[in-house]
Design brief:
Rossmann fold; 178 residues; three-stranded parallel beta sheet; mainly alpha
Amino acid sequence: MGGSLAWIIADRWPERIASLTMLSRPHPASFARALKIDLEQPHRSRHHQELLDPDAGQRLLAENGKWVRDRLARNGVPREAIEKHLSVIGNPPAMEAALAWYRARGQRAPIGPTRVPTLFIWGEADDTVGRIAAESTAEFIEADYRFAPLPGVGHYPADQQPARISELLLDHLTRHPV
């Protein structure tokens, strides 16, 4: 959800930000196109509809958070990081708050090309975002752009390779200071 908001902010108020760094979330126009042309993307994104269900929170937390644990583990998130995630969202009120934030996004207006320097970090083993959506993001950036695909990394690169993410981020911020 944070990634979606970051793209919107960069679109609507580019003069207010020096640069954008995105982890795992392709440009919305690229993602929308991938949903139409990539036969795998709708399957990868099926959880989007599932999370809108009013009973989603109960399902996600059932059996000691099995759904969350399995999803994070499938994406290569280390066990310690999974426990940290669940320490925050692993109770019904917190999960419902997270899902309410997710559900509140509703229909969005189309987003134009991004006009701020952008770093897009994507794990090649991401089970949610396919290669077409990730690689096509470049077509929707009208500023300095760097695509950083990470082999063997899933949807949560900061949990899998925090040192590499920090290195990429610091380099990007150095090249595009405030």
